[in-house]
Amino acid sequence: MTTPALPDLAALTDLAATLSQGRVSGLRWADGDGTLALVLDITGLTDAEREAAESALREGLSTAPGVTAVRIAMTRARITRRIIAVGSGKGGVGKSTLSANIAIALARQGRKVGLVDADIYGPSQPRLFGAEDLKPQARGNRLIPVQSRFGVPMLSTGQIATPGQAIAWRGPMAGRALEQLIDAEWGDADLLIVDLPPGTGDVQLSMLQKHKPVGAVIISTPQDLALMDAQRAIGLFDQMQVPILGVVENMAGYLCPHCGEISDPFGHGGAEAAARDQGLEFLGRVPLDIAIRTASDDGAPPAASDGLMAQPFAAIAVRIGAWLDARGGIASGHGP
Ligand code: ADP
């Protein structure tokens, strides 16, 4: 008895492409009995999405003429995850606010970005993202970031510490906690924005040593950059050979909501001038605006809005994106 000829692969290749949204390659007959073999690219898929893709392929292909079995091998591109550290010389200059909003603006510009709140002394990202009720789960010994409403997965030291307790981690403990956050299951996020604790202590030093950010962004109030605090932060990144992407001036110019007059409680342009003096890029300026504070307190980050408030963050994100693109993107290989 002769085996019937197997159908042409072209139609099956098209069907597999449709069923998997273009994730199938290497479709072939594995042997003469109608076993169809293929490779499914599962890069960036969650477990549930991977299972759904796999069963859609199995069901869709196994009923096609000539197919008796479907054999699926999986492949995943290795994502080189790049870290951008956001630092400031001291607290209260808006580092956390800027980190959250820059991450959201980058996501709105199509980047796959996650946020790590490494500010162990005052982890405020869960509040900024309106994600205080969300707790990260773990798979094996790895954390799964919380999916915020703004397209940015996030993890915060505040989520892994006991609520209400002052975080009094000492060096090695803090280091281990940060490691857990950075080495979490970030999926297809190829960029992590890390909101560092303010200042230049051991925690910052060991984080920079261990995780080697591709670049750092310095947040400063207008008058601050010329002062010691911000200089120390710049010195820290220089010492660790982390390139400084540039400086963001926060709380520049106060627009009075009552009289409409603009005043400059912290001066104006000081950070820009000082940045340029030192040969650093100036990434942009965010005004002191009470609406930024109230939106932030409400867990409604201004960068996620369609209003004027989103614009400075979008402009800063464009500059950061251009800096990253100039340095190349994802390297891929085959993982498990
Ligand atoms: P840091 O992380 O540097 O300690 P935060 O981001 O927590 O600073 O900001 C400190 C306070 O200042 C917060 O209440 C925040 O809402 C407010 N804030 C930050 N940037 C602005 C701004 N541009 N306009 C108004 N309020 C701001």
Would you kindly provide a written description of the structure presented here, covering whatever features stand out?
The protein has 336 residues and is an alpha/beta fold. Helix content is 34%, strand content 24%. The strands form three sheets. Strands 4, 5, 8, 9, 10, 11, 12, 13 and 14 form a nine-stranded mixed β-sheet that branches. The protein has a four-stranded mixed β-sheet with strand order 1-2-3-15. Strand 1 and strand 2 (35-41) form a beta hairpin. The longest helix is centred in the first third of the chain and has 16 residues, at 47-62. The two termini are 41 Å apart. It binds adenosine-5'-diphosphate (ADP). Residues 88, 91-97, 124, 198, 250-251, 286, 288-289, 292-293, 296 line the site of adenosine-5'-diphosphate.
Model regions low in confidence, pLDDT < 50 over at least 5 residues: 330-336
Strand content: 15-25%
What is the rounded distance between the termini?
41 Å
Biggest sheet architecture: 9 strands, mixed
One letter per element, helices H and strands E, the order comes to HEEHEEHEHEEEEHHEHEHEEHEHHE
Mean pLDDT over the residues: 87
How many separate helices? 11
Using only C-alpha atoms, the radius of gyration works out to 24 Å
Q: Hetero groups bound? A: adenosine-5'-diphosphate
* 3D shape: elongated
The total strand number stands at 15
Q: How helical, in percent, are the residues?
A: 25-40%
